[in-house]
Amino acid sequence: MKRTLFQFSFTTNRQCDNENEDNVNGDSESESDSNQTDGPSRSKKTKVKKTFQTSWLAKWPWLRKDEKGMKCKVCLDHKKANTFTGSSGCDNYRTSTLKRHVESSDHKDSLRAEALQKD
């Protein structure tokens, strides 16, 4: 069967597999197989919805979760104004967000004030 250049460039995997039937282990690839990608293109980024992890409550004892987001009990107790004390709390469910909050001056000041109250 005579094929046009257009038809030749669009070979299917089935045709390639038939040509390579002798290769049971799949050790060799046809040229058209090596140019194909597995899965979606890497240039398109899919947005993954992050969720609250209950294991974080053990790691960060000051952390509280309500229906709107995460809150910091220590910062709330000391009336600090930050993302973790707002009415909706923080909904950026990432460990990097929690680590950044731990390093914030509001949180550090609240921890110091908490320690002074206990003494």
UniProtKB/TrEMBL annotation:
Residues 18-32 have a biased composition (Acidic residues). It comes from the Bacteria. Residues 1-48 are annotated as: Disordered. InterPro entries: Znf_C17orf113 (IPR057456). It comes from Solemya velum gill symbiont. Residues 59-117 form the C17orf113 probable zinc finger domain. This is C17orf113 probable zinc finger domain-containing protein. Residues 1-15 have a biased composition (Polar residues).
